[in-house]
Amino acid sequence: MTESTNGRPTAAPQRHRGAVTLRRDAVPLSTADEKLLDSHHRGEWKTKDAWRALRILSEFVEGFDTLADLPPAVSVFGSARSKPESAECELATRLGAALAEAGYAVITGGGPGVMEAANRGATEAGGMSVGLGIELPFEQGLNDWVDVGIDFRYFFVRKTMFVKYAQAFVVLPGGFGTLDELFEAITLVQTRKVTRFPVILMGADYWSGLLDWIKQRMLDDGKINAADLDLIQVTDDVAEAVQIIVNAGAALADSQASS
Protein backbone atom coordinates (compact mmCIF):
# COMPACT_ATOMS: atom_id res chain seq x y z
CA MET A 1 0.00 0.00 0.00
CA THR A 2 1.07 3.64 -0.52
CA GLU A 3 0.04 6.67 1.52
CA SER A 4 -2.19 9.37 0.04
CA THR A 5 -2.11 13.10 0.89
CA ASN A 6 -4.73 12.65 3.60
CA GLY A 7 -2.66 10.00 5.33
CA ARG A 8 -4.86 7.06 4.32
CA PRO A 9 -3.34 4.09 2.50
CA THR A 10 -4.27 3.70 -1.17
CA ALA A 11 -4.11 0.57 -3.25
CA ALA A 12 -0.85 0.23 -5.19
CA PRO A 13 -0.93 -0.65 -8.91
CA GLN A 14 -0.67 -4.39 -9.26
CA ARG A 15 -0.77 -7.17 -11.80
CA HIS A 16 -1.26 -10.92 -11.44
CA ARG A 17 0.87 -13.34 -13.45
CA GLY A 18 -0.36 -16.77 -12.53
CA ALA A 19 0.63 -17.30 -8.93
CA VAL A 20 2.78 -14.15 -8.91
CA THR A 21 1.50 -10.72 -7.81
CA LEU A 22 3.50 -7.66 -8.91
CA ARG A 23 3.04 -4.21 -7.38
CA ARG A 24 4.37 -0.67 -7.74
CA ASP A 25 7.62 -0.43 -9.73
CA ALA A 26 7.68 -4.21 -10.28
CA VAL A 27 4.66 -3.97 -12.62
CA PRO A 28 6.03 -4.35 -16.19
CA LEU A 29 4.96 -2.09 -19.03
CA SER A 30 4.17 -5.00 -21.36
CA THR A 31 2.22 -8.25 -21.09
CA ALA A 32 3.33 -11.84 -21.64
CA ASP A 33 1.22 -12.01 -24.82
CA GLU A 34 2.85 -8.86 -26.17
CA LYS A 35 6.33 -10.25 -25.59
CA LEU A 36 5.46 -13.59 -27.16
CA LEU A 37 3.91 -12.08 -30.28
CA ASP A 38 6.33 -9.18 -30.80
CA SER A 39 8.05 -9.71 -34.17
CA HIS A 40 10.59 -6.95 -33.52
CA HIS A 41 12.67 -8.99 -31.09
CA ARG A 42 13.64 -11.96 -33.25
CA GLY A 43 16.80 -12.50 -31.25
CA GLU A 44 14.68 -13.91 -28.44
CA TRP A 45 12.99 -16.55 -30.59
CA LYS A 46 15.74 -19.13 -30.01
CA THR A 47 16.30 -18.28 -26.36
CA LYS A 48 13.36 -16.95 -24.37
CA ASP A 49 10.59 -18.49 -26.50
CA ALA A 50 11.67 -22.00 -25.52
CA TRP A 51 11.09 -21.08 -21.88
CA ARG A 52 7.81 -19.40 -22.75
CA ALA A 53 6.64 -22.64 -24.36
CA LEU A 54 6.98 -24.35 -20.97
CA ARG A 55 4.99 -21.57 -19.33
CA ILE A 56 2.28 -21.98 -21.95
CA LEU A 57 2.21 -25.73 -21.37
CA SER A 58 1.95 -25.18 -17.61
CA GLU A 59 -1.06 -22.88 -18.13
CA PHE A 60 -2.81 -25.54 -20.20
CA VAL A 61 -2.07 -28.18 -17.55
CA GLU A 62 -3.30 -25.90 -14.75
CA GLY A 63 -6.48 -25.09 -16.63
CA PHE A 64 -7.25 -28.66 -17.64
CA ASP A 65 -6.57 -29.99 -14.15
CA THR A 66 -8.64 -27.31 -12.40
CA LEU A 67 -11.67 -27.42 -14.70
CA ALA A 68 -11.83 -31.13 -15.55
CA ASP A 69 -14.38 -31.89 -12.83
CA LEU A 70 -16.75 -29.03 -13.62
CA PRO A 71 -20.41 -29.88 -14.19
CA PRO A 72 -21.82 -28.93 -17.59
CA ALA A 73 -21.03 -25.25 -18.01
CA VAL A 74 -21.99 -22.18 -20.04
CA SER A 75 -19.59 -19.35 -20.91
CA VAL A 76 -21.12 -15.89 -20.47
CA PHE A 77 -19.49 -12.84 -22.06
CA GLY A 78 -20.14 -9.12 -21.77
CA SER A 79 -18.61 -5.78 -20.96
CA ALA A 80 -16.41 -5.16 -17.94
CA ARG A 81 -17.50 -1.51 -18.15
CA SER A 82 -21.21 -2.08 -17.59
CA LYS A 83 -22.54 -0.50 -14.42
CA PRO A 84 -24.17 -2.73 -11.78
CA GLU A 85 -27.50 -0.96 -12.28
CA SER A 86 -27.45 -1.34 -16.09
CA ALA A 87 -30.00 -3.43 -17.96
CA GLU A 88 -27.35 -5.88 -19.18
CA CYS A 89 -26.03 -6.51 -15.65
CA GLU A 90 -29.54 -7.12 -14.37
CA LEU A 91 -30.08 -9.52 -17.26
CA ALA A 92 -26.75 -11.25 -16.58
CA THR A 93 -27.61 -11.75 -12.91
CA ARG A 94 -30.91 -13.39 -13.79
CA LEU A 95 -29.21 -15.49 -16.45
CA GLY A 96 -26.52 -16.69 -14.04
CA ALA A 97 -29.15 -17.71 -11.51
CA ALA A 98 -31.28 -19.52 -14.11
CA LEU A 99 -28.28 -21.42 -15.46
CA ALA A 100 -27.29 -22.49 -11.95
CA GLU A 101 -30.83 -23.65 -11.23
CA ALA A 102 -30.72 -25.69 -14.45
CA GLY A 103 -27.54 -27.44 -13.26
CA TYR A 104 -24.93 -25.47 -15.23
CA ALA A 105 -21.75 -23.90 -13.97
CA VAL A 106 -21.24 -20.33 -15.18
CA ILE A 107 -17.88 -19.38 -16.70
CA THR A 108 -16.94 -15.73 -17.24
CA GLY A 109 -13.78 -13.73 -17.69
CA GLY A 110 -13.91 -13.13 -13.95
CA GLY A 111 -13.89 -9.34 -14.21
CA PRO A 112 -16.38 -6.62 -13.22
CA GLY A 113 -19.52 -5.50 -15.06
CA VAL A 114 -21.52 -8.15 -16.89
CA MET A 115 -19.06 -10.86 -15.85
CA GLU A 116 -19.45 -10.08 -12.17
CA ALA A 117 -23.23 -9.94 -12.53
CA ALA A 118 -23.37 -13.41 -14.12
CA ASN A 119 -21.02 -14.85 -11.49
CA ARG A 120 -23.12 -13.28 -8.75
CA GLY A 121 -26.35 -14.71 -10.10
CA ALA A 122 -24.86 -18.19 -10.25
CA THR A 123 -23.32 -18.04 -6.78
CA GLU A 124 -26.45 -16.65 -5.10
CA ALA A 125 -28.48 -19.43 -6.73
CA GLY A 126 -26.15 -22.05 -5.27
CA GLY A 127 -24.33 -22.89 -8.51
CA MET A 128 -20.66 -23.11 -9.45
CA SER A 129 -19.19 -19.78 -10.53
CA VAL A 130 -15.93 -19.77 -12.52
CA GLY A 131 -13.71 -16.84 -13.48
CA LEU A 132 -10.94 -17.06 -16.07
CA GLY A 133 -8.85 -13.93 -15.63
CA ILE A 134 -6.16 -12.54 -17.90
CA GLU A 135 -3.05 -10.42 -17.46
CA LEU A 136 -3.85 -6.93 -18.78
CA PRO A 137 -2.06 -3.57 -18.64
CA PHE A 138 -5.04 -2.28 -16.64
CA GLU A 139 -5.49 -4.73 -13.78
CA GLN A 140 -9.05 -5.90 -13.12
CA GLY A 141 -8.65 -8.84 -10.78
CA LEU A 142 -11.22 -11.58 -10.21
CA ASN A 143 -14.54 -10.44 -8.83
CA ASP A 144 -15.68 -11.57 -5.39
CA TRP A 145 -18.41 -13.89 -6.72
CA VAL A 146 -15.98 -16.32 -8.36
CA ASP A 147 -15.74 -19.75 -6.66
CA VAL A 148 -13.03 -21.15 -8.92
CA GLY A 149 -10.64 -18.65 -10.48
CA ILE A 150 -7.62 -18.98 -12.75
CA ASP A 151 -5.40 -16.11 -13.88
CA PHE A 152 -3.82 -16.63 -17.30
CA ARG A 153 -0.87 -14.97 -18.98
CA TYR A 154 -1.87 -15.95 -22.52
CA PHE A 155 -5.15 -15.13 -24.24
CA PHE A 156 -5.14 -18.22 -26.44
CA VAL A 157 -4.84 -20.55 -23.44
CA ARG A 158 -7.71 -18.77 -21.72
CA LYS A 159 -9.83 -18.94 -24.89
CA THR A 160 -9.30 -22.69 -25.06
CA MET A 161 -10.74 -23.04 -21.56
CA PHE A 162 -13.81 -20.95 -22.45
CA VAL A 163 -14.58 -23.28 -25.35
CA LYS A 164 -13.45 -26.66 -24.01
CA TYR A 165 -15.67 -26.63 -20.92
CA ALA A 166 -18.75 -24.84 -22.31
CA GLN A 167 -21.99 -26.34 -23.56
CA ALA A 168 -22.99 -22.94 -24.96
CA PHE A 169 -21.91 -19.30 -25.27
CA VAL A 170 -24.21 -16.49 -24.14
CA VAL A 171 -23.06 -13.05 -25.28
CA LEU A 172 -24.40 -9.87 -23.69
CA PRO A 173 -23.56 -6.28 -24.71
CA GLY A 174 -19.83 -5.66 -24.72
CA GLY A 175 -16.86 -4.21 -26.55
CA PHE A 176 -13.98 -5.52 -28.64
CA GLY A 177 -13.20 -8.41 -26.29
CA THR A 178 -16.82 -9.56 -26.34
CA LEU A 179 -16.94 -9.33 -30.14
CA ASP A 180 -13.71 -11.31 -30.32
CA GLU A 181 -15.20 -14.15 -28.28
CA LEU A 182 -18.47 -14.03 -30.24
CA PHE A 183 -16.93 -14.32 -33.68
CA GLU A 184 -14.35 -16.87 -32.60
CA ALA A 185 -17.16 -19.08 -31.28
CA ILE A 186 -19.14 -18.71 -34.51
CA THR A 187 -16.06 -19.47 -36.60
CA LEU A 188 -15.20 -22.58 -34.58
CA VAL A 189 -18.74 -23.92 -34.99
CA GLN A 190 -18.97 -22.95 -38.68
CA THR A 191 -15.68 -24.67 -39.52
CA ARG A 192 -16.53 -27.69 -37.34
CA LYS A 193 -13.50 -27.23 -35.14
CA VAL A 194 -15.80 -27.83 -32.18
CA THR A 195 -18.95 -29.83 -31.65
CA ARG A 196 -21.80 -27.48 -32.49
CA PHE A 197 -23.14 -25.61 -29.48
CA PRO A 198 -25.59 -22.70 -29.13
CA VAL A 199 -24.30 -19.15 -29.50
CA ILE A 200 -26.95 -16.88 -28.00
CA LEU A 201 -27.04 -13.08 -28.13
CA MET A 202 -28.91 -11.35 -25.34
CA GLY A 203 -29.65 -7.64 -25.48
CA ALA A 204 -31.42 -7.70 -28.87
CA ASP A 205 -31.52 -3.93 -29.29
CA TYR A 206 -27.76 -3.65 -28.71
CA TRP A 207 -26.97 -6.31 -31.32
CA SER A 208 -29.57 -5.28 -33.92
CA GLY A 209 -27.26 -3.03 -35.96
CA LEU A 210 -24.56 -5.69 -36.15
CA LEU A 211 -27.06 -8.36 -37.18
CA ASP A 212 -28.54 -6.08 -39.85
CA TRP A 213 -25.03 -5.48 -41.23
CA ILE A 214 -24.30 -9.21 -41.29
CA LYS A 215 -27.50 -9.85 -43.24
CA GLN A 216 -27.39 -6.84 -45.55
CA ARG A 217 -23.67 -6.83 -46.27
CA MET A 218 -22.04 -10.21 -45.55
CA LEU A 219 -24.97 -12.37 -46.67
CA ASP A 220 -26.00 -10.22 -49.63
CA ASP A 221 -22.37 -10.07 -50.82
CA GLY A 222 -22.07 -13.85 -50.61
CA LYS A 223 -19.44 -13.77 -47.86
CA ILE A 224 -21.54 -16.16 -45.75
CA ASN A 225 -24.36 -18.60 -46.48
CA ALA A 226 -27.93 -18.18 -45.29
CA ALA A 227 -27.45 -21.29 -43.13
CA ASP A 228 -24.65 -19.52 -41.27
CA LEU A 229 -27.21 -17.14 -39.76
CA ASP A 230 -28.65 -20.13 -37.91
CA LEU A 231 -25.44 -20.30 -35.87
CA ILE A 232 -26.63 -17.26 -33.90
CA GLN A 233 -29.80 -17.12 -31.82
CA VAL A 234 -31.17 -13.95 -30.26
CA THR A 235 -33.41 -13.61 -27.24
CA ASP A 236 -33.90 -11.38 -24.22
CA ASP A 237 -35.91 -14.07 -22.45
CA VAL A 238 -33.75 -15.81 -19.82
CA ALA A 239 -35.99 -18.87 -19.69
CA GLU A 240 -35.87 -19.23 -23.47
CA ALA A 241 -32.07 -18.92 -23.50
CA VAL A 242 -31.70 -21.65 -20.90
CA GLN A 243 -34.19 -23.87 -22.74
CA ILE A 244 -32.21 -23.49 -25.98
CA ILE A 245 -29.13 -24.71 -24.14
CA VAL A 246 -30.94 -27.60 -22.46
CA ASN A 247 -32.52 -28.70 -25.76
CA ALA A 248 -29.18 -28.56 -27.58
CA GLY A 249 -27.56 -30.70 -24.89
CA ALA A 250 -30.34 -33.27 -25.06
CA ALA A 251 -30.17 -33.40 -28.87
CA LEU A 252 -26.40 -33.92 -28.77
CA ALA A 253 -26.73 -36.69 -26.18
CA ASP A 254 -29.37 -38.45 -28.32
CA SER A 255 -27.22 -38.25 -31.46
CA GLN A 256 -24.16 -39.60 -29.64
CA ALA A 257 -26.20 -42.45 -28.13
CA SER A 258 -27.53 -43.50 -31.53
CA SER A 259 -24.20 -43.28 -33.34
Structural class: alpha/beta
Order of helix and strand elements from N to C terminus: EEEEHHEHEHEEHEHEHEH
The side-by-side strand order for the widest beta sheet comes to 8-7-6-5-9-10-11
What separation lies between the terminal Cα atoms? 60 Å
Radius of gyration: 20 Å
Average pLDDT confidence is 88
Helix-residue proportion:
40-55%
**Main pleated sheet:** 7 strands, parallel
Low-confidence stretches: 1-5
General shape: globular
As a percent range, the share of strand residues is 15-25%
Number of helices: 8
Number of strands: 11
Walk me through what this model shows:
The protein is an alpha/beta fold and 259 residues long. Helix content is 44%, strand content 16%. Strands 8-7-6-5-9-10-11 form a 7-stranded parallel sheet, with helices on both faces. A two-stranded antiparallel sheet has the order 1-2. Helix 3 packs parallel to helix 4 and helix 3 (87-101) crosses helix 8. The longest helix is centred in the last third of the chain and has 21 residues, at 238-258. Strand 1 and strand 2 (9-10) form a beta hairpin. The chain is built from 8 helices and 11 strands.
